[in-house]
Design brief:
Chain A: InterPro entries: PurS, PurS-like_sf. Chain A: Keywords: ATP-binding, Cytoplasm, Ligase, Nucleotide-binding, Purine biosynthesis. The complex is a heterodimer of chains A (about 80) and B (about 230). Chain A has about 80 residues and is of the alpha+beta class. Chain A has one domain: Mth169, Chain: A. Chain A has two helices and three strands, in the order βαβαβ. A three-stranded antiparallel β-sheet of chain A has the order 2-1-3, covered by helices on one side. Chain B is α/β, with parallel strands linked by helices and about 230 residues long. A nine-stranded mixed β-sheet of chain B has the order 2-1-3-4-11-10-9-6-7, with helices on both faces. In chain B, strands 5-8 form a two-stranded antiparallel sheet. The chains are: A alpha+beta (about 80), B alpha/beta (about 230).
C-alpha cells in the first residue's frame, strides 16, 4: 500500500480571499510579522500499489484530470509506504 | 422547442428552470439525469444552479465527470445551445466548454441579493431580445462567483466579444464599487467563441415572473426561442 499526500494550491497570480482573511486574523492576534498567507488543499490518496514510479504516474494523472484545476491551481505530492 | 434540464446530485434550481420553461414560456421541457448516456435530442440544454456533488473538491469539478457531460460536450460541439446558470456556469468552466474559472468571492460572503447587470453583448442566442448595454436586474446567490482568467485568454475573449454580462449599478457604471464578488472586469456572464455556450452567475430563472418581483430574466429564455425559431 502506498500513500500519496497531495497539495493543491492556487497559482501565485490568483488572488486568495480565504488566505487574506486568515492573514488579517493572524495580524489582529498580534502576529505582525506575518507577510502573506496562502490557503490550499491537502488530499491523501491510498493506493493498492507497490511500484512507486507507477504510483507517481497515476497520481500525476489524478491531479491533472480531477484534483487540480490547471486554470487556477498548481499541485505537488509526496509518495510514501503506508 | 425541446429543452432539457440536467439534474446532478445537489442541483437545486432544476425545478425552477423546468417551471419557467414549462409554465412561463410554455415550451416542452424534460429533466435529464446526470448519468444519461445517449445522444441528446434537444434544442437547448440547461445546466441549473445548485451544489452538484456537494461542490466537494471545487465547485463543478466532480459534475464535470458525470456520464452526461461527454454527451453535452458533443451536443455543444455540434452547435447545440447550452446555458449554465451559477453552478452550471462553474461546471462549464471545469469542463472547458467555457474559459476561466470561478473562485471564492473576494469578500468571502455568500451573496444573495438583487444585482444590476449590463448586457454588453446582445448578439448572442441568449441575449438577442435585450438592447445593447441595457441594464437589467437579476438575482445573484453564490459563494464562488469570482471569475478569473489569464490575461492572454481575457484579451482573446474581448476580441471575440465573449463577455456578455457585467455587474454594474442602476446607471450602468461598471467599476470596483459595483462588483459584488471580485470578478475580473466585473464579468457576470460569458459565452464561447462560437456563441452557442453561455454561462452566467445571476439567476434569470428566478426573475422570470412578476410574482417574483421582476421579469428581466425571462428574455434570456425568450431570446433562446427567438434564436431557434429564426434559424
Amino acid at each position: 500500500m502506498l500513500k500519496a499526500e497531495i497539495f493543491v494550491y492556487l497559482k501565485k497570480s490568483i488572488s486568495d480571499p480565504p488566505g487574506i482573511a486568515v492573514l488579517n486574523s493572524l495580524k489582529s492576534l498580534g502576529f505582525e510579522n506575518v507577510e502573506k498567507v496562502r490557503m490550499g488543499k491537502y488530499i491523501v490518496v491510498y493506493l493498492n500499489e507497490n511500484d512507486i514510479e507507477k504510483a507517481k504516474e497515476e497520481v500525476k494523472l489524478m491531479c491533472e484530470k480531477l484534483l487540480c484545476n490547471p486554470v487556477m491551481e498548481e499541485y505537488k505530492f509526496n509518495i510514501s509506504e503506508e | 422547442m425541446k429543452f432539457g434540464v440536467v439534474v446532478f446530485p445537489g442541483s437545486n434550481c432544476d425545478s425552477d428552470c423546468y417551471h419557467v420553461i414549462k409554465d412561463v414560456i410554455n415550451e416542452h421541457v424534460e429533466y435529464i439525469w446526470h448519468d444519461y448516456n445517449e445522444k441528446l435530442d434537444f434544442d437547448c440544454i440547461i445546466l441549473p444552479g445548485g451544489f452538484s456533488y456537494g461542490d466537494y473538491l471545487r465547485a463543478g469539478a466532480i459534475a464535470r465527470f458525470s456520464k452526461v457531460m461527454p454527451r453535452i460536450e458533443e451536443f455543444a460541439q455540434n452547435g447545440g445551445l447550452v446555458i449554465g446558470i451559477c453552478n452550471g456556469f462553474q461546471i462549464l468552466t471545469e469542463s472547458h466548454l467555457l474559459p476561466g474559472a470561478l473562485i471564492r468571492n473576494k469578500n468571502l460572503k455568500f451573496i444573495c441579493s438583487d444585482q444590476y447587470v449590463k448586457v454588453v453583448n446582445n448578439k448572442t442566442p441568449f441575449t438577442n431580445l435585450y438592447k445593447e448595454n441595457e441594464v437589467i436586474n437579476l438575482p445573484i446567490a453564490h459563494g464562488e462567483g469570482n471569475y478569473v482568467v489569464d490575461e492572454a485568454t481575457l484579451q482573446e475573449m474581448i476580441e471575440n466579444e465573449q463577455i456578455v454580462l457585467q455587474y454594474c449599478d442602476k446607471n450602468g457604471n461598471v467599476n470596483e464599487d459595483t462588483n459584488p464578488n471580485g470578478s475580473i472586469l466585473n464579468i457576470a456572464g460569458i459565452c464561447n467563441k462560437e456563441k452557442n455556450v453561455f454561462g452566467l452567475m445571476p439567476h434569470p430563472e428566478r426573475s422570470s415572473e412578476k410574482l417574483l418581483g421582476c421579469e428581466d430574466g425571462k428574455r434570456v429564455f425568450l431570446s433562446i426561442i427567438n434564436y431557434l425559431r429564426s434559424r
